[in-house]
Amino acid sequence: MAAFRRRGLTADLVSFPAGEGSKSRRVRDEIEDGIIRLGAGRDTALLALVRRRGLTADLVSFPAGEGSKSRRVRDEIEDGIIRLGAGRDTALLALGGGVVGDLVGFVAATFMRGIPYIQVPTTLIGMVDSSIGGKAGINHPAGKNLIGAFHQPSAVYIDVDYLKSLPDRHYASGLAEVIKYGVVADRALFSSLETHLERIQKREPDLMSRVIEACCRIKAKVVMEDPNESNRRKILNYGHTVGHAIETLSGFRLAHGEAVSIGMVAEARVAVRLGMLSLEAAERIAGLCERTGLPTAVPPALTPAAILEVARHDKKNRLGRIAYALPIRIGAMASERGEYAVEADDALVTEVLQDMRRLRPKPRTLMAAEI
């Protein structure tokens, strides 16, 4: 299903089969506000390499950012590849961050009832999370990722060299997902993040290769056990019930990992209030997020009522009741009657969120590149 390459992926990539036939359509999100810097000519150079292999290859671009995960942009991509003559012998190559992977994966899942696609993530979130597992989809005004499909990529190529040009804010955003993996499944990974955070913030290639590979192995194991998120895979949504709601209500001005950081702290506090998690563990989670430079306070403009209203559309919910993925200790998640989605009373969650609105946001931690 996936291939992991630590560095220098180009030669491997152009030797990968393009699907059932000989056509390739390369789709990427455009550079916008420095969020994704592929390097001058890097995308066109890759396109040229694919063409030199004898494949018919074209470039389809769309604006960067969460706003592109929409029906309108999906339609534009579909219109574009149809004009270019795409068919069932076409493979899509998604080069970019989580948005491009989610969107292109959804197009691949539905175009002609399914064509192959390859993920080449260029952001840390893409490398450790969104490119693995086959989740693809678009947003709806009512909530994030409400329209989509499960469609596994033919391969995932990861090159840590892409991280060199990723802006600090978006690198930190990706580290939120890394922290999540430590909380839900790997106590040793979490402890390693606490110990080696400064080296991780410096983006040491060998260390980051090991960190990314550890995250990929965790996600791959969980996905293989529960590919369609019917139960255990829900643990990977830790921090995302509250986080997705906050991200949506912010108008996506908060980066995904920033919203997830707030969500992880909130949901850890909920677990403490329910007697599932120790206060010490919750404080370690919040402390690591803060050291990483991530927010841990609910923005004062967002009310608990508004957050819960958006959270009612979360995919884990059953019978209209909001469900959460909650830790019982660092490295393990709660289950009730064999279910990994745990219900919590709205009044309790409201108290937690209200308390977090009163927190004074801490100054953003300087990342290594800024010191």
Q: How would you describe this structure to a colleague?
A:
This protein is an alpha/beta fold and 371 residues long. The protein folds into 2 domains: 10-164, Rossmann fold, CATH 3.40.50.1970; 168-370, Up-down Bundle (Dehydroquinate synthase-like, alpha domain). It is 44% helix and 14% strand. The strands form 4 sheets. It has a 5-stranded parallel β-sheet with strand order 2-1-3-4-7, sandwiched between helices. A two-stranded antiparallel sheet has the order 5-6. Strands 8-11 form a two-stranded antiparallel sheet. α4 (98-110) links the parallel β3 (90-96) and β4. The radius of gyration is 20 Å and the shape is globular.
Task: Provide the fold topology.
Blueprint lengths: L9 H5 L8 E7 L12 H11 L3 E7 L8 H13 L6 E7 L1 H13 L6 E5 L2 H7 L4 E6 L2 E8 L4 E2 L11 H18 L1 H15 L3 H21 L14 H10 L6 H18 L5 H13 L12 H8 L11 E2 L2 E3 L2 E2 L8 E2 L2 H12 L14
Parallel strand pairs: 1-2, 1-3, 3-4, 4-7
Antiparallel strand pairs: 5-6, 8-11, 9-10
